[in-house]
Amino acid sequence: MSIKAIDTIVQEQQQQSIDTLFTLLKQESISTQNKGMRECAALMQDLMREIGIDPVLHETKGHPILYGELKSENASAPTILLYGHYDVQPPDPLDHWHSPPFEPTIRDGRIYARGAGDNKGQIVAQLLGVKAYLEVFKSLPVNLKFVIEGEEEMGSVHLPDFVQEHKQMLKADLVYTADGPSHNSGLPLVLLGVRGMLALEIEVEGAAFDNHSGNTGNIVPNPAWELMELLQTMRDQDGRVLIDGFYDHIRPSTPEEDKLLEELPFNAKEVGEKIGFPSLELDGVGYHRKLTMEPTFNIFGLKSGYLDEGVKTITPSKASVKIDTRLVVDQNPKDIFEKIKRHVKAHHPTAKVRFLGSMDPSRTPVDTEIVQKAISGIRDAYNQEPLIQPSLGGSLPDYVWTNILEAPSMLMPYANFDQRNHSPNENIAVENFLNGISCTAHVIHELGK
């Protein structure tokens, strides 16, 4: 049989594939709130069994990790590990959704539901790609291993320990992940790493309780002002982080990586419209370098005083900020956290700094032989040259594969650029979902040659 038969199978089974995805999307699985996690893991196990995998549910101190294998008849076949996650973000704010988040709906060629793009739509496409390949060829040219976890949206808390404990069982020649958004141009995109992440909270306290802003005005300190003054010491007006040592240990980009950035297409107007910021003013290299090769220092939440409608004239007793930093190779989240703590202590000794979570950055060299073979499979699937980006702007637990398992790792996002993951009206285009099924089969075929 020809590999082209895969495309026919995918089109013929389009409705069946969508129905399979809908079964998973209807089941909420919010890891941070422990909603529906066991039920969703059971549904994922059912799907794995349909493909011929004998899934094993590994308990952790949090949500379970699913593992399974499919072996090739070829004793010298390479081993590919497919990774994904079955947990999703909370759907809030609910009133911003055009249809209920756990009632998947197709509108204008897109499937709308929480998890449609991140990551149920993409891991289901991988599984269905394996199924389609077996239907056409009856056997696999590679060994496949599957790791599907339930804690990615809360930082993959227990995945590192799982990988460390089961290194021999998980041993692989390549880790292949379908996650994240594709390129804004719509062209297929290969990602060879991720930025890391550190999340923390800083809290400043004033009086023991909120005070009348007139009766005690100018008397009790206002922690909201103190917090803003503290934040001004951490970042300048050009966005450069002022924390001592923050930029230490950043690995310079290689000439090959610089060339990849230069080759990525970019349209500032189009990207600006898709991200809701039409006044975006960057050139392509600047945009992609900021997104992949530079760290961030981002405020994602501020809280103090009275925030409801109307007026409540108080001097608040507390103020807090939540910050996430996206880190690049070879920055260490724990090292950065300690540097931030020292900076805060020097500028506001009584402020409290709390660690909320972290993930290490990771990157695989573009000239890795097995990566190049997988790229050939992607090229065949889409009949065009894929774009290659050294890193994803966001964070995934890629380091558990490159640092702990010591395997090369690559990401091939199947979801559309404007999938709105983590936001209301998350979606995946039906075409992207079906193409992901086909792409998985093509990659398996090429790696097995």
UniProtKB/TrEMBL annotation:
Pfam families hit by this protein: M20_dimer, Peptidase_M20
Superkingdom classification of source: Bacteria
Positions of the Peptidase M20 dimerisation domain: 193-349
Mitochondrion as UniProt keyword: no
Keyword line: Hydrolase, Metal-binding, Protease
UniProt feature coiled coil, ranges: none
Transmembrane recorded as keyword: no
Name of the protein: M20/M25/M40 family metallo-hydrolase
Organism: Alkalicoccobacillus plakortidis
